[in-house]
Prior knowledge:
Elements (H helix, E strand, L loop, with lengths): L4 H13 L7 H8 L3 H12 L9 E4 L1 H4 L4 H17 L35 H6 L2 E4 L16 E6 L3 E8 L6 E2 L2 E2 L1 H15 L20 H17 L6 H11 L9 E6 L2 E6 L4 E6 L4
Parallel strand pairs: 1-4
Antiparallel strand pairs: 2-3, 3-4, 5-6, 7-8, 8-9
Helix pairs in contact: 1-3, 3-8
Amino acid sequence: MDESKRVKKLRREMVNAIPKFPNNRETKEKLEQESLTTLLVHYLNWMNRYISVKPRKIVIEPTVTSDSRWKTLKPDVEALLAKARNGENLCPNLSIQPNTKGYTPKASEKRPDVDRWADKDFLLNAMGFHHFHLGTKIEAAGHAERTNEVLFSRVTREEFIAIGIFDHTVFESTGDDMSVERKRLWEIFDEHTTRGVPPGSVVMASPIATSGHPIHLVSTAQEYSWVIREIDPKLDDRDFVEELYQDAGLEKPKNPKLEWALNFSDLGIHETKSNHLFVLRRGFN
């Protein structure tokens, strides 16, 4: 299908935003040639590794407070939780890897020896858990001081659920040989997944596509692509735009300029003159 200038602009913004490796013309061209849906998959996969900025209710699981390191790390953990509660930016405490490694074409190659996880966070995709460094000092590069211990948490739009404290051996795994910390994380994940489920039930925890992307992320990209294709022609319709503003209870500016926008994982329409953002679909967190 022919794409409007608005959709082409959204494409360029996604391609330019995703950190590419190797960061060269070939990698950029590979992204540019992808379908809108596939490009959205790559963008959302990268953006899913960050946390949107908003206040959240704090939930602390017993697996945090019963940890032998809780007494020592409590002040740092509580400082992080206070940031989450107050709606401060949590991204400096996250891994810095997605700052430079958002997409590589090698992960999409059709070979049996391909590393599908080169541009993905395996534990996030498989479990839905982010991990946070506990440093309270912000370095010159903009990230929090790196710490050996990290806090794994499930973050939704409304809640920040602290799951457990782990050291960096939690990331060590070779085949079936897992570190003690990694085994413990899987045990906690299994307990969360099956919590409240009747005995004998079949549980599908986190379905993942053969590409390594979570199924819910692929479905979201497909839905966003459909919404863009359906709504984009209507953005030139005066009556549709009038209704858009009426539904939002806002005064429509003269000759509004509408563009597609992605705010973290939310899909919306941005009116650039008045800086209004109409959120059409809410994302992951």
